[in-house]
Amino acid sequence: MARVKTGVVRRQHHKKVLKLTKGQFGTRHRLFRRANEAMLKSLWYAYRDRRTRRRDLRRLWIARINAAARLNGTTYSRLIHAMKVSRIAINRKMLADLAVRDPETFRAVVQKAQSA
To answer: Which of 13, 35, 80, 116 has its CA 20 to 30 A from that of 97?
Structure first.
């Protein structure tokens, strides 16, 4: 069999990795080995932090809902329990958005939940 050289394929792979690490500091965007390490690490961080972002956003929504609920004379846990009992199905993201952008509607939701 004839010998197969990896020239074109290897160059394409190197170019792909170097393109992904564009903007990194120093040799992390110039040298293939350092760039490959940086790329693998950055892809791992991106995968991990996509999950962390969801966790952080949920914490932010809960903090906002709790702050707005306390302005309306209740707490977060009591509000969520009252909403479940009265079958008001608004998720935390929408509830936090109401608390920030439309306090009157949020107050109405709180009163409706507490009355049931």
So the answer is: 116
Taking residues 19-35, what's their average pLDDT? Answer: 95
What CA–CA distance (Å, rounded) separates 93 from 60? 9
pTM confidence score: 0.76
pLDDT of residue 97: 96
Helix spans in 72-102 (H): 76-85, 92-101
Look at the chain and report how many structural domains it folds into: 1
- Residues 6 or more apart in contact with residue 64 via CB below 8 angstroms: 96, 99, 100
Contact 17, 35 (CB under 8 A): yes
Q: Which residue, 77, 69, 73, 80, is CA-closest to 106?
A: 69
